[in-house]
What does this fold into?
Amino acid sequence: MGNDIPTFWENVVAGRSGAATITHFDASLFRTQFASELKNYNPSSYLSHSDIKRTDPFTQYALIASDQAIKDSGFDLAQMDPFDVGVIWGSGQGGMETFEQQVTEYVQGNGQPRFSPFFVPN
It folds into this structure.
C-alpha cells in the first residue's frame, strides 16, 4: 500500500487495495495467484550495503518501518536518554527467503554443505 507513511495513508484513505498478481516468484503452480507484496522496494534508500547483505528482507522491513514510526512519532531521540528508549522485536519463524536460498544452493550443489555463516542470524 506504500513504502512510507504518507503514501500508505493516502492509499488507505482512497480505499486502494495492495493485492495484485504475485511477481516475486513463479506462482503458476499455486491456486492463489495474488498477494499484497511490497512494491518498488529499494533497501539501499534506507540501509547500508553491508546491512542489506547481512539481513533477510523481513528484517529490513522491520528496521525501516520502526525507523519511520519513530520519525513519525515526533520523538527527538537526541534529547532522550538512550537507556530509556528501545524496540523489542521478534519473529516466530525468521527469514524464509534466506532459508529457501540457502537450502536451494545446498540441493543444487555437490552435496557439500556450505551454508553462509550469517544463515541463522539473518
